[in-house]
Q: What sequence folds into this?
């Protein structure tokens, strides 16, 4: 095991996979000497050269489309967008091309393509650099959607993403990059997609959360414990595919569920989870599921305003109390 | 001079494409085809002239007007028509129809129903070729309308910066749906834009298969020599409307008839073949008849092919390996 930051875990996994398979390469804005604005590709060019660690022009449509073409032609690109917000610049390539190519061509294409980027609040980047947009990707068939919340998960899930023969959208959270955790040294360490992780066991209420909100859910669980409420915290880790079994089994035990994310609440992925829980475990529910997400409002710059848009730990706590009729 | 064998291959493909497109038109009017169908009739010299110099290891990306590229890149008429008819035996199992038709196994990275959508994908094909150190090229076919999309600019710049073996072929058929090119495009020749990217640009008569062949030969040579991409503009004209339901209010009957009578690429190429004694009139007639017979068989195959099974509608969204 090694104690690594989330960013170091990504960096090390990229290096290990590039060493293992010469078809794997990295392309994106400022990925070479700078190592990406958050350092995830730092120094990779020194070992692998600028042929396999390619700075691109600020042309998201061109390099995401080129990554798709290269994947169809036998390479395994890892394309880095600087911010997930910039996905909208190349929305056609992502949603009409990358997501649909295998299906429309009758299953004849294999697309081993990873598109990585980071998202979320915490650095005062304002409306077009602080959004959490994964729900949009979950909505679109043909893309796998991965959201690691720890250094270990970042390493294990990225390895699975790079080895997958499908397009994988890999969502990192900018506020997690410096968080540290133990990561196995095994260069084969991989976490399968569609396997949620129960981060904390509990019996009264289930909290499902992703990315930074896993930490917030764990904080909420600590507070609830002091009130005699036992919360189970589940990190789905991948949203496509989604491990409904683990969530449903937890709800069968607790009878209550709160789903929290930084992505916007309206039609966010939490609402789909709540809907499935109602369909599959309605008779086990003792209260209505509660979804928490950012307000239907762009992310403002000012720290106080920014925090006012996204759900707080206190709101998660209050939602859990509400499911227990203790509000 | 084009070699005899190549010339006859081009002539055959042009006839196959013409037959395919006109058959598709007939089937559409008989209500046997549905959806958006954009016909390539009148532009055959470009796909045939270019693809005569490509192998299965070379890539193309194509457009909503993509049947011609698909056939010239090696697709058989029967499975291509079956795809247009949405049949299970079609190249894409009936999921793509006209606008996404492709035989992936022949190096066709796809027809693309988004104008300009395929251009970056062709750049990716070129990137893979360069990284794999192969002696191949990647060709992006697109229309005059796509030259005003951001992907055109981004892709050519990227391919130029990385000196990729990509050849950008603009099929300028003079209308973006109904809008004439002069009304939408800042330059008279789209290939003039090559200068802005520091790459080679050339304008040719897209109805002259020989001119297309020779210009592409030069572009391919540059690409293989590591000199980077070329923007090749082929001026042409589509005989049919933008799509099968186009009322064609934006051009005159006389204009269309003039192109059909005086600028038919198949007739022009037949004259070249005869003039240079590459083949006799009888040989050309035989090729035409063979193409027509193959087309007739394709219709029979497609009409008799089964519908895809809705039980498998969600197969292939992901590769399950």
A:
């Amino acid at each position: 095991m090694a104690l690594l930051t989330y960013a170091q875990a990504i960096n090390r996994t990229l290096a290990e996979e590039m060493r293992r398979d010469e078809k794997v390469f990295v392309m994106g804005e400022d990925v070479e000497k700078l190592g990406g604005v958050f350092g995830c590709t730092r120094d990779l060019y020194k070992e692998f050269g600028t042929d396999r660690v390619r700075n691109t022009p600020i042309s998201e449509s061109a390099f995401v489309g080129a990554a798709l073409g290269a994947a169809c032609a036998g390479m395994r690109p890892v394309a880095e967008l600087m911010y997930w917000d910039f996905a909208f610049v190349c929305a056609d390539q992502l949603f009409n091309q990358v997501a649909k190519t295998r299906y429309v061509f009758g299953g004849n294409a294999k697309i081993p393509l990873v598109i990585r980027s980071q998202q979320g609040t915490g650095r005062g980047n304002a409306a077009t650099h602080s959004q959490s947009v994964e729900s949009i990707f979950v909505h679109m068939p043909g893309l796998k959607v991965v959201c690691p919340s720890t250094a270990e998960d970042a390493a294990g899930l990225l390895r699975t993403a790079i080895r997958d023969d499908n397009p994988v959208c890999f969502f990192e959270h900018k506020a997690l990059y410096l968080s540290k955790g133990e990561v196995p040294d095994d260069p084969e360490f991989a976490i399968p997609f569609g396997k949620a992780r129960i981060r904390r066991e509990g019996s009264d209420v289930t909290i499902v959360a992703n990315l930074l909100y896993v930490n917030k859910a764990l904080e909420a669980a600590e507070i609830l414990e002091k009130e005699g409420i036992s919360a189970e915290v589940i990190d789905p880790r991948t949203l496509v595919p989604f491990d409904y079994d683990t969530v449903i089994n937890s709800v069968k035990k607790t009878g209550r569920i709160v789903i929290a994310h930084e992505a916007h609440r309206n039609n966010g992925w939490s609402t789909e989870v709540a809907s499935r829980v109602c369909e599959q475990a309605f008779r086990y529910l003792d209260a209505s599921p509660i979804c928490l997400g950012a307000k239907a409002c762009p992310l403002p710059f000012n720290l106080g305003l920014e925090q006012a848009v996204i759900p707080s730990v206190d709101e998660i706590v209050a939602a859990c109390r509400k499911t227990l009729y203790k509000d | 001079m084009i070699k005899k064998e190549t010339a006859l291959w081009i002539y055959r493909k042009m006839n196959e494409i013409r037959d395919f497109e006109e058959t598709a038109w007939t089937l559409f009017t008989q209500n046997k085809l549905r959806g958006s169908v954009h016909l390539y009739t009148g532009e055959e010299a470009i796909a045939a002239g270019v693809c005569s110099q490509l192998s299965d290891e070379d890539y193309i990306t194509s457009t909503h007007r993509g049947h011609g590229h698909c056939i010239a890149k090696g697709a058989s008429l029967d499975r291509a028509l079956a795809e247009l008819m949405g049949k299970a035996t079609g190249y894409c199992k009936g999921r793509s129809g006209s606008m996404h038709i492709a035989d992936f196994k022949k190096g066709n990275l796809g027809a693309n129903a988004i104008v300009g959508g395929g251009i970056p994908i062709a750049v990716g094909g070129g990137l893979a070729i360069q990284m794999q150190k192969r002696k191949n090229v990647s060709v992006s076919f697109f229309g005059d309308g796509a030259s005003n999309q951001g992907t055109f600019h981004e892709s050519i710049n990227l391919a130029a910066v990385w000196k990729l073996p990509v050849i950008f072929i603009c099929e300028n058929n003079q209308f973006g749906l109904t809008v004439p090119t002069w009304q939408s495009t800042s330059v008279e020749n789209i290939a003039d834009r090559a200068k802005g990217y520091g790459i080679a640009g050339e304008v040719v008569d897209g109805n002259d298969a020989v001119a297309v062949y020779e210009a592409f030969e030069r572009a391919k040579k540059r690409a293989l020599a590591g000199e980077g991409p070329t923007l090749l503009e082929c001026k042409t004209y589509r005989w049919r409307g933008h799509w099968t339901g186009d009322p064609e209010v934006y051009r005159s009957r006389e204009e269309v008839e003039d192109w059909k009578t005086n600028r038919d690429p198949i007739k022009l190429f037949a004259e070249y073949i005869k003039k240079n004694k590459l083949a006799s009139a009888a040989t050309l007639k035989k090729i035409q008849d063979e193409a027509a017979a193959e087309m007739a068989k394709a219709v029979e195959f497609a009409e008799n092919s089964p519908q895809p099974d809705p039980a498998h509608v969600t197969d292939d969204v992901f590769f399950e390996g």
Q: What stands out?
A: Chain A has two domains: 2-183, 197-323. Residues 6-20 of chain A form the longest helix (15 residues). Chain A touches chain B at residues 25, 51-52, 54, 56-57, 59, 61-75, 77, 92-93, 96-97, 101-111, 141-142, 144, 165-166 (CB under 8 Å). The two ends of chain A are 43 Å apart (CA to CA).
